[in-house]
Specification:
two-stranded antiparallel ribbon, seven-stranded mixed beta sheet, 9 strands, alpha+beta
Amino acid sequence: MSEQFLYTTPLDPRATPLIEGLTFEYDSRYGDVMREPGQPREMERYPAEAFSPAQGGNFVLLLRDGVAIGGGAFMRHDERTAELKRVWTHADLRRQGLASKVLAELEAQVLRQGYERIYLTTGFRQPEAVGLYLGHGYTALFDPPIDPETPRKLPFEKYLDTGRQHGLAASGQLVGAAQR
């Protein structure tokens, strides 16, 4: 078995399993619960170009023997922040650490593209995603004790190790990414 990452576009035919798998996941878990009337479905909210390097994003597939078994994307959120989207692993191959591999690769690419922070949201019916992000050092930007079936997006953030300090310096002055 040979695994490799391939940076491409959501329009690449090799991305079809990812797109179809995510569409099925979102539709089966949420239906229209999270969608306002007249709004597009989640998989139709962003054009493929939003995940292109030219617009500050990227799209990666994890291939095993040439077949997509995982993947994810990010887009520009702001000058210092990338927003992760579309993190996925094949339903038949879960619980094998593939999502962790994809997440680590996305974080590395986010750094290579000059971002300092990652922002993302996941849905309230995706406890495995919540566990993944918390297990990889992401900070929940929501109150976890709220009823897990309350329809909402669950935001997270993570400051990446860029070699610069974040937060407060000993003198109380803001430094690094926290300084605006």
